[in-house]
Write a structure and sequence with these properties.
Layout (H helix, E strand, L loop, with lengths): L4 H52 L6 H32 L10 H24 L1
Helix pairs in contact: 1-2, 1-3, 2-3
Keywords: Membrane, Transmembrane, Transmembrane helix
Subcellular location: Endomembrane system
Pfam family, one: DUF202
Amino acid sequence: MDKTEGDRETDARTEWAEDRTDWAEDRTLLANERTFAGWMRTGMAALGVAIGLKAVFGAFEPTWLAKAVASIFILIALLIFAAAAREARRAQARISSHDAEAQGARRMLALALMLSLGGLATGAILWLL
């Protein structure tokens, strides 16, 4: 039994709709990567504020107060890194990749962990200075 022209058009439209859905999922995965990168930049900015506070308040007395304020920004950076890794992992678990090659959740987690370790080391250095 041959398909009619209308059936072939319907099949083509269905295929196009499926392609558009696949591309939308790929765009969402790539947007998730950009969002993750934005969160990482924001965390690094918080670390930069912590370091900047040490430079600005170097001779500030009591020194523990300036260090405590800088530590707040380090804590904020650590929370941002953790939230970014968690949300990126959750988003990737919900969406499947079709044509795009998105970064893996493990790679994003590894980056967040390394930046967190760097943030902790920055805090230790600030307290030792």
